[in-house]
Write a structure and sequence with these properties.
By secondary structure, this protein is mainly α. 79% of the residues lie in helices and 1% in strands.
Length: 410
C-alpha cells in the first residue's frame, strides 16, 4: 500500500499496537548499534587497530546518513513495512559478516556498509514518519518523544548483554546473538502498517517532492538546523564508539563502560520523553539549542574533573538525559515547516548532516589516539563543535515557507 493512501488511524488498540511495535523495533535497532563499541577491545587481539575500528563505525554512519533520504523516500512512496523488513534483514546480514570474517574487510563490509543501511531503515527516519502521521499535530511531539524514549532502552539492555557474552563466551558468540536479535526485528516489522490521523492532512498535501525540496533548500531555518545537527552526531558517536577505549587508558575497568552505556539508555528514556512534552509547549528550536549547549557543558565538566568510575557514571546519566531529546524536536520542526507527506525524505536530509558528524567523530577518535596516544584532540573538538551548534541553532526562524502559509481553498 502506498504511504499516500494509508488508512486513518483509529484511536484504540490498533494505534497502541503500532506505537508498541515501533518502539520495540527502535529499541533493538539502536541498542545493537550503540553497543558495538564494546567489541573494539576484543577485536584488538586480532590486530584491529583503534583507527581501523573507528573507520568501520565511521563508514557505518556515513552510509546510514547517505542512504537515509533514499530509504525515507521509498517508505514515503511504498509504505513502511517492506522497507523496514528489508533493512532489518540487511542489518542481520551485516552482523553475521562482521562475526564470521573477523578482519578489517569483514568489519568494514559488515559493521560498516550493511549495518549502516540496516539502521537507516530500522532507526529513526522511517519509524518516526509512521508515528508522526499516526497522531494529530497537537500530540505529535509528546508521542514521538514517548516512542523515542522507550526506543532508547535498548542500550540499557543490550550493552550489558554484550559485555556478559563477550566475557563468558567470546566476542563471536556475542555478535551472533546480536544478529539473531536483528532477525527478530524483521519479524516485528511485519506487523507495522501505516495509519493516518485525520488532522495530518495539510495544505501541503498536494505539493510534489521537488516543490518541498526547493522550499527546504531555500529556508534559512531549515538549513541552520541541518548544519547544527552535525554536532549531535559528532559528539554522540565519538562517545559510543570510543568511551570504552578512553576509559581503558584511564585504568577504568571494562565493566564500567558497559554500565555507563546502560545508564545512558535508562536516563535517555526519561530525558527524551520529558523533552518531547516540553517541545509541545515551548519553542522547539530554542530547546534544541539548549540541548547542544548543555551537552557541551557536561563534556567539559567531565574532563575537568578526575576521571573515575563514579564520575563516568554521573556523566553518562547527565548525557543520557540529553541524548535523544533532539528527535521529537527535529521531527516536530520538520512537520510544522513542510507537512507530513514527505517527512521521511526531509528527515533523511537533515539526518545526513548528523551522520556526517558521526563519521567525523568516529574517525577522529581513532586517528587522534593512534597518532598522539590520547583522545585529547577529539575531546576538545567535541566542545568546540558543540558551541558552534548552539550559536547556529538558537536564532533559528521556524516559520513555514510562504507557499505553505497561504490558506488552502476548500
Amino acid at each position: 500500500m502506498s504511504a499516500t493512501t494509508a488508512s486513518p488511524a483509529r484511536p484504540g488498540l490498533s494505534l497502541w499496537i503500532l506505537l508498541g511495535l515501533a518502539s520495540l523495533v527502535m529499541t533493538l535497532a539502536m541498542g545493537l548499534r550503540q553497543s558495538l563499541g564494546l567489541f573494539q577491545t576484543p577485536l584488538g587481539t586480532l590486530g584491529i587497530s583503534a583507527s581501523t575500528f573507528g573507520f568501520a563505525l565511521a563508514l557505518q554512519n556515513i552510509v546510514w546518513g547517505a542512504s537515509q533520504p533514499f530509504v525515507g523516500a521509498l517508505a514515503d512512496r511504498f509504505g513502511p513495512r517492506p522497507v523496514l523488513v528489508g533493512t532489518a534483514l540487511t542489518y542481520a546480514a551485516g552482523l553475521l559478516i562482521m562475526g564470521e570474517a573477523g578482519g578489517a574487510v569483514g568489519l568494514g563490509l559488515g559493521a560498516g556498509l550493511l549495518v549502516g543501511v540496516g539502521v537507516a531503515g530500522t532507526g529513526f527516519g522511517v519509524l518516526l514518519g509512521v508515528v508522526s502521521r499516526a497522531v494529530p499535530e497537537h500530540r505529535r511531539s509528546r508521542t514521538v518523544g514517548a516512542v523515542a524514549a522507550t526506543g532508547s532502552l535498548g542500550t540499557a539492555l543490550l550493552a550489558p548483554l554484550a559485555q556478559g557474552l563477550i566475557g563468558a563466551s567470546g566476542w563471536r558468540i556475542a555478535i551472533l546473538v546480536f544478529a539473531a536479535i536483528a532477525l527478530v526485528m524483521a519479524v516485528l516489522c511485519l506487523g507495522i502498517v501505516e495509519r493516518r490521523a485525520p488532522a495530518v492532512t495539510t495544505a501541503s498535501s498536494d505539493e510534489t517532492l521537488g516543490q518541498v525540496l526547493r522550499q527546504a533548500m531555500t529556508h534559512p531555518g531549515f538549513l541552520a538546523m541541518t548544519a547544527a545537527f552535525f554536532a549531535c552526531g559528532f559528539q554522540l558517536v565519538f562517545i559510543t564508539s570510543h568511551l570504552p577505549a578512553f576509559l581503558a587508558t584511564c585504568g577504568i575497568p571494562a565493566s564500567v563502560s558497559a554500565t555507563a552505556l546502560g545508564v545512558v539508555g535508562l536516563t535517555n528514556a526519561v530525558g527524551t520523553y520529558v523533552i518531547g512534552v516540553l517541545g509541545g509547549r515551548f519553542s522547539q528550536p530554542k530547546l534544541l539549542a539548549l540541548i547542544y549547549l548543555l551537552r557541551t557543558v557536561a563534556i567539559a565538566t567531565y574532563l575537568a574533573l578526575p576521571i573515575t568510575s563514579a564520575s563516568t557514571l554521573v556523566f553518562a546519566g547527565v548525557l543520557g538525559l540529553l541524548w535523544l531529546g533532539v528527535t521529537p524536536l527535529v521531527s516536530g520542526i520538520i512537520g510544522r515547516l513542510f507537512g507530513m507527506r514527505h517527512f521521511s525524505t526531509l528527515f533523511g536530509i537533515v539526518f545526513f548532516s548528523h551522520q556526517l558528524g558521526s563519521f567525523c567523530g568516529a574517525l577522529l577518535g581513532g586517528l587522534s589516539f593512534d597518532l598522539t596516544g590520547s583522545y585529547s584532540i577529539a575531546w576538545a573538538s567535541l566542545i568546540a563543535i558543540g558551541l558552534v551548534a548552539f550559536l547556529l541553532q538558537w536564532p533559528m526562524n521556524d516559520r513555514p515557507p510562504a507557499l505553505r502559509r497561504v490558506p488552502a481553498v476548500s
